[in-house]
Amino acid sequence: MKNILNSTFGLKSFKPGQKEIIQSVIRGKDVFVVMPTGSGKSLCYQLPALVREGLTVVISPLIALMMSQVLYLKKLGINCGALTSSSSPGEVSEILDNLSQKALKILYIAPERLSKASTIKILKAGNINLIAVDEAHCVSQWGHDFRPNYLLIGNLRKTLNVPLVALTATAGPRTKIEITKLLFGNNKPKSFFFGYDRPNIFMSFQLKSSPRDQILNFVKKNKQTSGIVYCATRAKTEIIANALNEVGYSALAYHAGLESSVRRNVEALFSSKDNLIIVATIAFGMGLDKPNIRWIVHADLPQSIENYYQEIGRAGRDGKPAIALTLYSQEDIDFRRQQINEGTMIEVQKDLNHQRLNHIIGLSDDIDCRRKNLLGYFGEDIVSCKNCDLCKNPKDTFEASKSIQKILECIILTNEKYSIANIINLLTGQLTDKIKKNKFFGTGKEFNNLQWLAIIRQMMGKDLIRPSLKGGNSITLTVQGKMFLTNKYPINFNLDSFNKISKKLKIKTLISDDDQALLSMLKANCRKLAENSNIPSHFIFREATLIEMAIKKPKNIDEFFMIRGVGPKKLEKFSASFLNIINVLPPDALHPARRKLIGGPSAYIYDQLIEAQSKLAYGKDGYQKKITCSPSIIAKISKLINPTQTIINNILGEKKALRFGKEFLKILKDF
Asked: Containing H/E element for 492?
């Protein structure tokens, strides 16, 4: 074992825990491993694969991770391969030949391949003596990256009757239980839990004020070192990489939209060069083996604490000090909510993801030690770390239980049908067509809209409320929220966050407090659309256009077209998406004849003619045979200039002219 460590892998000694795990795997025991990021989990199945006879099958969720590992192992002279959706016929044929000759030592496969009978046939025919499950949390619905095909692994293990080693860096107490149950069944694995703490990483969070400057200032303080900037969208990676290059840094963008050859080149450059900055989506970093990454910046709020932990864990793997900075905003939260709501997951999974998002919000707005919160999420207890921004500079707080109670009771009274924006408007006494007066109307004028928004955000961070799965942007109480109302207790919130969000947003947008929550949702929608098209969000709509939408709140497609920055093409592509957010009920679909009139005076006349026709369809007394005009006829009449009764009657025909002619002329003359 020691000889292979030295001669094959070029390592002088084992990291803490590796030797004991490897010995157990070599002896053929079922093994479950939870180790911090950067602790060397891969070696725990790669080295035993070389010691034991036969083939080791590694099930891994990411093609990029598999290909990176295969490339690394082949450089070490180890015969290995990968079966993925991107494998060419030639590559598959080569793997099958190696399997038939029993020459392959390690085979990586994607979990989706397990659903194919051909894959099971191949594995049964191979000389398999070990299954390794990487990122084992994917088997659990409570894990942050649940993959349904991971559920097939338990049956595969029974079919092949070989030992199994499951490894992960991110599994809370509930996830650990489910991993053991689903992968090992009645067998009790030998478990190794080494904790999650990476004490050398300094953790810091900041509300966004000027994100570009915040990132550039941070990089300036940490220049001459390698780092990664994580972004929520592909387009943003390009924008930030360009901004860094413009001021003299070496930066490369990395995301799934790039050609695979470009991505491989970026990975190779980052592994070999110092002082290079990678600006990436979460597609970058899995399996990355660069020990001297000194810093990680999240330009946007991560999806969950598990994602955050994995991503900051790529820094400081040499044990030396490293820094992790996370920027966040209400817009980030709305964007993440939208990603969840528009996903294809079942409702239970969506609710779990909203809960996970609540936990990362809680870490962002924390008032206690960040590491204590982070490790507590995974079931570990510490007093404080002395190596985070909160331990270094404690935040001012305020007691918020009365405000929390008011919001929770307000949500209940409105039958959990109001959005955050409407709850805030109700409390501050802003009467709109969506607000119905009740006993809470105007009872929250002690705070402005943005301060209420900060309180609600921190309530989400405590998982007292979540978005309702019924849709409509409404919010609902969680079990914790209901328990709070039953047994009230003091809760302190971050005063710094409460004050800063108000000042920052007022200066930045020049928009009233009342419309700020809506603006945040419009921005999040803009980012979502931009991500889908792999373009910067301002290519959809600029901020000034979004601000005008939030202020004017267009009710229909005509009013939407009057917003500055909305042209015919953008109207066609984006109007429905934004109007659905601005209005409780989506606007009715328009007939093509009506759509052609959008933005002109004839649109208003058309609508008046349709309304008049509706009233007269059964005659003035309401008992005659129904008569209607086609949309194209109505459109033709609406565009008449200097109309006369004769012209209108000729267009309508005799019967319709008797029913509608005089009223239609009156509408045209009045206009």
From this structure: strand 492-494
What are the pLDDT digits (tens) for 472-482?
Answer: 678 999 999 99
pTM: 0.73
* 449 and 553 share one domain: no
Name 638's Cβ contacts closer than 8 Å, sequence gap at least 6: 597, 602, 603, 605, 606, 609
Per the listing, tokens 């993925």 go with: 84
Domain count for the chain:
5
- All residue ranges of the chain with pLDDT < 50 are 502-510
- Residues 69 and 267 sit within 8 Å (Cβ to Cβ): no
Does residue 595 fall inside a structural domain? no
**280 assigned to some structural domain:** yes
C-alpha 258/C-alpha 448 separation (Å) is: 44
Instruction: Enumerate residues 6+ apart whose C-beta is below 8 A from 630.
Output: none
In a shared domain, residues 144 and 21: yes
Domain-embedded: residue 596: no
Sign, CA dihedral 169-170-173-175, equals negative
**Same domain, yes or no: 233 and 297:** yes
Domain of 368?
201-392
Given a contact cutoff of 8 angstroms between Cβ atoms, the answer to whether 91 and 81 are in contact is yes
Judgement on whether residues 242 and 320 belong to the same structural domain of the protein: yes
Residues 447 and 302 in one domain: no
CA of 464: how far to CAs of 12, 341, 354, 410, 456, in Å? 50, 19, 12, 13, 9
Q: 183 and 328: one domain? A: no
Render pLDDT for 566-604 as a digit per residue (tens, 0 to 9).
Answer: 887 888 888 888 988 887 555 556 677 777 777 666 777
Q: How far apart are CA 521 and CA 599, in angstroms?
A: 25
Helix (H) or strand (E) holding 109: strand 106-109
CA angle 151, 167, 110 (to 5 degrees): 50
In this structure, are 258 and 335 located in the same domain?
yes
State in Å, rounded, how far the first CA of the chain is from the last one: 91
Q: How far is CA 358 from each of CA 148, 192, 216, 509, rounded to the nearest angstrom?
A: 24, 29, 28, 26
